[in-house]
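Figure S4 source data
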Amino acid sequence: MPVQLTFNGGNETGLMKALQQELRHRLLADELTELDRPSTVMLKSTDNIPIESLWSYWQTYTGWNIKEIILQGNANGLFAPGNPNHVNLFQWLWSRIIQLHLDEFQDHWNATPPRSQKFKLLPTAAPEMIFFYPERYDMLHCGTTVPAELVEELRATHLNKTRTEVMEWVPQACDQLVGDAYEYIGSPGLHYTTGWATFGKLIEVIESA
């Protein structure tokens, strides 16, 4: 966990803030108080311009394309919302496709150095380089290891669900069924441009089983 977690303000960050504050209190209360350094800082989007601009660019040139193609599946009759097999397969497949493209965006952002600025105090380097090799930039890694049992305790307290339950999009039996069907059709690559073609092959296998 970081000493301080910085994020844009928003209703969706409430749990994130609460967990960071509790972790700080449990692990670093004897070393650092909220007065010394707040455990969380919320920024306005306009104060986080580089990532906001790139995110907007992604939404415009990739995100909206994905949305349009997903909607085409319903408009073209490829997806039947009243069919439970279609609903489960949609959630299994498209959650993976979208996550893949979000991961690509994240990897691009973390591997891209920001432009040099004359009066900037932080180093001009890719975020992942600074994170993994802070000593190269005369910096210190200030992360604190969080014991696994504490993570499980907080998950049980705040969510009352296991990690598996939180991360699953479909019931486990369905996950196994679709996973087997995916292997049967050759585990094709996941991309939004071929998502509905893969969906069609999978639903044929599932409904003929």
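Figure S5 source data
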Amino acid sequence: MNVTFALATARRILTQLRHDRRTVAMLVLVPSLLLILLRFVFNTEMAFSAAAPALLAVFPFAIMFIVTSITTLRERTSATLERLMTMPIGKFDLLLGYAIAFGLVAVLQVAVATAISLTWLGLEIDGSVLLLLLIAMLDALLGTALGLFVSAFARTEFQAVQFMPLIVMPQILLCGLFAPRETMTPVLEWLSNVMPLSYAVEALESVTRSNELGGTFARDLVIVAGSGVLALILGAATLRRRTP
């Protein structure tokens, strides 16, 4: 791993994003706008506080997944990756650079959404705000890593979008957002247990409900972070220079 190459890639991506204000606005503001909409759908702070923690994991995860997968695919189809890989840069260095750049955007995205939720929208939590931010950021980074991974298997932007219902939607449905995981059928509970978003939601709910966090919370953090690292490694292993 070459940190210099990774940072140079991150700087290039951030420079491109700086000139694409619409994409930046979507990345930073859409989760907050969705949470604002949800607050007025529930119309009570109590109901919003019950649902919002899970959605602080779901919204950044889904948005970072789709944006990252399409952006990476576009760079491959435009032969940008092919030109970059003629240089002495490793595949993992390249994906790490993408992860750093989009990770910084994810930090801003989650910080804005959390700040709005805790102030204007009346989200109430019993645990640490910093831990809440940490988990939500890890989940956004997980979405980024998975987006980088699946982009290797898509040939067009339309195919990249099709990974959304395949990778993201099952995790949203089975993460415990709509029904407790322990009440699901054995097969669905097993599927939920192997999906990293379930542990991100569980960790966020633990933080919002209590100041006392034990081994389960630490396990959830390790699983979410480890899943992101694993997705980056698999993405580097499957990365192609260009789409045929």
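The chain has ten helices and no strands. Residues 3-238 form one domain.
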